Amino acid sequence: xxxxxxxxxxxxxxxxxxxxxxxxxxxxxxxxxxxxxxxxxxxxxxxxxxxxxxxxxxxxxxxxxxxxxxxxxxxxxxxxxxxxxxxxxxxxxxxxxxxxxxxxxxxxxxxxxxxxxxxxxxxxxxxxxxxxxxxxxxxxxxxxxxxxxxxxxxxxxxxxxxxxxxxxxxxxxxxxxxxxxxxxxxxxxxxxxxxxxxxxxxxxxxxxxxxxxxxxxxxxxxxxxxxxxxxxxxxxxxxxxxxxxxxxxxxxxxxxxxxxxxxxxxxxxxxxxxxxxxxx
Length: 280
Fold this sequence. Notes:
Distance between the termini: 77 Å
Strand content: 5-15%
CATH class of the largest domain: Alpha Beta
CATH topology of the largest domain: Beta-Lactamase
Number of strands: 5
């Protein structure tokens, strides 16, 4: 059931907190109300001024989920505020997803780990961000959207590009598939997940065989060896931290105990990602 009074109050208070510059609008002259005007929110949400006004006045019909989503975006609600808005409207909030958005706090944390490689990726394997040492450790990877930056796609379609010893290949492939299975179970209706699975089934016999096992396991810790082209094998212990919405993964690679990985990572930190060209 819609809580019309509290919904109206929440909308008004959120609107008054925003300034035109916050949403890319000019400041205008003779602004008599704090924050945005109702017509500005209505424009941003793609609805009539009359309908939005009735929401703020606790009148009219109960809003639909699409209307609440549009208003939440217009009012720049974070996930907690968006969910609260849905509850006030008497609706079930949509599943939480960061949608490739990496919170500034995660990047600040990674920036402080200067001697630890860090990679931030989506739950379907797309590389979103790396710290400098993360880039130095994984020169074979790209950042961005699409298959060229997807570690799962590259694992099964370009196995020759993978910087891991053959002895670890089967285990790492199985780990990728079981982790993707968990993501598929959580949000199989999403186009990005369904498309990736469909295309991998079409392209890779190894993936098809592993997918048909129905093994499901969210990857939280691992141990692997990177065959780095400049410093040789680096054995690391991987810690995977999942965000609350579980579609962004923060992966830190710590040097494996009892190996020379710490010294090699320090060398990588010094040389960075500079290109090495043989002297004629």
